[in-house]
């Protein structure tokens, strides 16, 4: 039986509202690539992101345009020439990895040289809101080892201090989602440093972050919107200390592996991040994150319901995927 492609779209409700500096949402809209070949099925999920010009419709159309190649037997080594980086290629790439593992009987973890992948400490995200709300969320999650706090307003001092007061023992990373400015950058970094924050993600808009090379950085500064694939890394060495690798940006596990190796060679700290998606989207990233400096793979924890079977989460830990989920 020849290989076949199915494209599924799904909506998963978020538990409450997920808010960043660019807006809020109450559902996670995902696209799933399903490849069937020789009696086995490979799965890959992506989350289209409007910040990068992606929609459910555009991502679905991208995958559909590749149908003749995929059903004709396209393999991983040729995918980068067939599709550009982004969410659509991520879904296809991860489906091909899963399919190859199931056809060969060799797990993705084994293919990556991971003999005993272990549970990881993942961040838990606190949405942007008024300081009192954020302090309350921090108190409710103060037993978590790592909190990721959404900021990105003109005056985040009260929010940073409120969260630190609510979770005095947790490691805190901030994510400004491009929401700070050259005028308030230095002040916010100093406030974060005094509050014992470990890292801040993407304080300035991508393409307007040159000042980061000129000022003192009292804490680690991590690129997110400014970095998508391996080719972006060299130009960021003077302004960022870390990079956030997301499979929906790189276009899948294949490019993410190459990007991680080159980033480590260049001296960047590594964060493995995610969009708000299900366990299927997180599964490949958990394997890639085995030696990452920061792990932010809490997407399923933000949902009212996840796929079944899903990843195992307990407190701040996330376990590697079982093979009935992916890989």
UniProtKB/TrEMBL annotation:
Q: Which SMART domains match?
A: MR_MLE
* Superkingdom, taxonomy of origin: Bacteria
Q: Name one Pfam family in it.
A: MR_MLE_C
State the EC number(s).
5.1.1.-
Gene3D superfamilies registered for this protein in UniProt = Enolase-like C-terminal domain (3.20.20.120), Enolase-like, N-terminal domain (3.30.390.10)
The annotated active site, in chain numbering, is 150 (proton acceptor), 246 (proton acceptor)
- Give UniProt keywords alphabetically: Isomerase, Magnesium, Metal-binding
User: Which cofactor(s) are needed, names only?
Assistant: Mg(2+)
Protein name (record)? Dipeptide epimerase
Q: Which organism is it from?
A: Rhizobium grahamii
């Amino acid at each position: 039986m020849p290989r076949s492609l199915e494209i599924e779209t799904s909506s998963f409700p978020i538990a409450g509202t997920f808010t960043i500096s660019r807006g809020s949402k109450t559902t996670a809209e995902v696209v799933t690539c399903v490849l069937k070949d020789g009696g086995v099925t490979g799965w890959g999920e992506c989350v289209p992101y409007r910040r990068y010009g992606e929609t459910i419709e555009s991502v679905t159309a991208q995958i559909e345009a590749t149908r003749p190649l995929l059903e004709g037997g396209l393999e991983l080594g040729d995918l980068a020439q067939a599709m550009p980086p982004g969410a659509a290629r991520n879904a296809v790439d991860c489906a091909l990895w899963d399919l190859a593992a199931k056809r060969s009987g060799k797990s993705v973890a084994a293919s990556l040289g991971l003999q005993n992948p272990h549970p990881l400490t993942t961040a838990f995200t606190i949405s942007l809101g008024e300081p009192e709300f954020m302090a309350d969320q921090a108190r409710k999650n103060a037993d978590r080892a790592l909190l990721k706090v959404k900021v990105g307003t003109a005056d985040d001092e009260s929010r940073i201090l409120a969260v630190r007061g609510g979770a005095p023992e947790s490691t805190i990373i901030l994510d400004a989602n491009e929401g700070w400015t050259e005028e308030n950058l230095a002040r916010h970094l100093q406030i974060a440093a005094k509050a014992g924050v470990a890292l801040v993600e993407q304080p300035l808009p991508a393409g307007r972050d040159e000042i980061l090379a000129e000022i003192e950085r009292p804490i680690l500064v991590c690129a997110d919107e400014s970095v998508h694939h391996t080719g972006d890394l060299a130009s960021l060495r003077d302004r960022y200390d870390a990079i956030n690798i997301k499979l929906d940006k790189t276009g899948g596990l294949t490019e993410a592996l190459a990007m991680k190796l080159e980033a480590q060679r260049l001296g960047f700290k590594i964060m493995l991040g995610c969009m708000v998606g299900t366990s299927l989207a997180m599964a490949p990233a958990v394997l890639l994150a085995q030696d990452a400096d920061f792990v932010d793979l809490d997407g399923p924890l933000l949902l009212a319901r996840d796929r079944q079977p899903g990843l195992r989460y307990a407190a701040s830990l996330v376990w590697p995927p079982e093979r009935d989920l992916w890989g």
